[in-house]
């Protein structure tokens, strides 16, 4: 009986231990620590790692309120002075990661304006090292300081393109193939991007920096117009500011340049103090095209260069109210051959950037 009792007691003890182990096995595990957003400083300020990945993301943009004014505006009663207001929201998303072929980038720009109630894509591209493909602003979008200069033909600044840039220290060389969107029915809802287009252009640019001086030389060819456009741009740090100038020439009106046969512009940005800068500017246009100085005017096709000249002069004031909140005031005066009087125009802007 003693042996039997001992065996029964041992079995009971083993059962109790097994039960305890089974109970321990079904206890819920403690939650893993939360993965907080990590700062990514490999590509500059403002980037953070997307949780669970090695991709760095930057979110930036601005909110803008602007009042525009112009003298003798067509469409206003009696061609009187006109005013309009616009509020804009702009968001940029920039994703970057390191690869064995260089930095891989994906970029999206979205813009929404109150005056047309529409949100539009203002840029979307993929970039790997020096190779870039997507919808982005071309070389002609680069201008000089201030708001006086017209540096492209308005509709020609952004395209679906493929480009490559080679950089070697202070020297760089770029080339792009551009596909021109057909905006012939841009006023018809749903038609702006509905058409196939076989209109192409190519651009090449070389840039260099030599101490306080930098320069760009740009050449483009529009296959549809069978015309070439050339531009040279130079910048130099002089005194308390920066002096910039460019000259442009075109063999005929084309998607890259259709304002005039030739043009020259100059500006000087004077940095008065840390918050205030003033930029006067001047531009001359020789042998205007049919669109005149109205870059949003009629289609350039069939609009040959004429014999009229024009010039514009203006000044732009930039002031930082507080960090990330700025105001810009710009006033321009246009004078066109054949018109009785000149025209004043400009804007007042308030912008919060982030």
UniProtKB/TrEMBL annotation:
<keyword id="KW-0472">Membrane</keyword>
<dbReference type="InterPro" id="IPR003684">
    <property type="entry name" value="Porin_alphabac"/>
</dbReference>
<dbReference type="GO" id="GO:0015288">
    <property type="term" value="F:porin activity"/>
</dbReference>
<keyword id="KW-0626">Porin</keyword>
<dbReference type="GO" id="GO:0046930">
    <property type="term" value="C:pore complex"/>
</dbReference>
<dbReference type="GO" id="GO:0006811">
    <property type="term" value="P:monoatomic ion transport"/>
</dbReference>
<dbReference type="GO" id="GO:0009279">
    <property type="term" value="C:cell outer membrane"/>
</dbReference>
<keyword id="KW-0812">Transmembrane</keyword>
<dbReference type="Pfam" id="PF02530">
    <property type="entry name" value="Porin_2"/>
</dbReference>
<keyword id="KW-0998">Cell outer membrane</keyword>
<keyword id="KW-0406">Ion transport</keyword>
<protein>
    <recommendedName>
        <fullName>Porin</fullName>
    </recommendedName>
</protein>
<keyword id="KW-0813">Transport</keyword>
<keyword id="KW-1134">Transmembrane beta strand</keyword>
<feature type="signal peptide">
    <location>
        <begin position="1"/>
        <end position="22"/>
    </location>
</feature>
<comment type="function">
    <text>Forms passive diffusion pores that allow small molecular weight hydrophilic materials across the outer membrane.</text>
</comment>
<keyword id="KW-0732">Signal</keyword>
<comment type="similarity">
    <text>Belongs to the alphaproteobacteria porin family.</text>
</comment>
């Amino acid at each position: 009986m003693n042996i039997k009792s001992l065996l029964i007691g041992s079995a009971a003890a083993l059962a109790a231990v097994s039960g305890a182990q089974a109970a321990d096995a079904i206890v819920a595990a403690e939650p893993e620590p939360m993965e907080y957003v990590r700062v990514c400083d490999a590509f500059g300020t403002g980037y953070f790692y997307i949780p669970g990945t090695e991709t760095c993301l930057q979110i930036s943009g601005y909110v803008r309120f602007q009042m525009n004014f112009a003298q003798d505006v067509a469409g206003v009663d009696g061609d009187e002075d006109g005013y309009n207001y616009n509020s804009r929201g702009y968001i940029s998303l920039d994703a970057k990661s390191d690869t064995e072929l260089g930095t891989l980038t994906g970029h999206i720009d979205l813009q929404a304006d109150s005056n047309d109630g529409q949100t539009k894509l203002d840029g979307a591209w993929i970039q790997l090292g020096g190779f870039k493909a997507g919808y982005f602003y071309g070389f002609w979008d680069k201008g000089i300081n201030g708001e006086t200069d017209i540096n492209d033909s308005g509709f020609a600044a952004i395209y679906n393109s493929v480009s490559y840039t080679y950089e070697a220290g202070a020297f760089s060389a770029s080339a792009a193939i551009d596909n021109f969107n057909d905006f012939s029915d841009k006023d018809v809802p749903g038609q702006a991007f509905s058409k196939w287009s076989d209109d192409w252009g190519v651009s090449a640019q070389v840039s260099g920096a030599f101490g306080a001086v930098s320069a760009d030389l740009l050449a483009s060819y529009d296959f549809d117009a069978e015309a070439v456009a050339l531009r040279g741009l130079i910048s130099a740090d002089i005194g308390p500011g920066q002096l910039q100038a460019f000259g442009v020439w075109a063999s005929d009106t084309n998607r890259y340049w259709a304002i005039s046969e030739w043009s020259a512009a100059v500006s000087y940005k004077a940095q008065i103090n840390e918050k205030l800068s003033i930029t006067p500017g001047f531009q001359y246009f020789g042998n205007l095209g049919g669109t005149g100085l109205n870059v949003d005017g009629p289609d350039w096709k069939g609009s040959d260069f004429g014999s009229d000249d024009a010039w514009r002069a203006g000044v732009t004031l930039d002031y930082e109210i507080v960090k990330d909140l700025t105001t810009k005031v710009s006033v321009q005066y246009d004078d066109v051959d054949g018109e009785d009087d000149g025209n004043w125009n400009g804007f007042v802007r308030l912008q919060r950037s982030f």
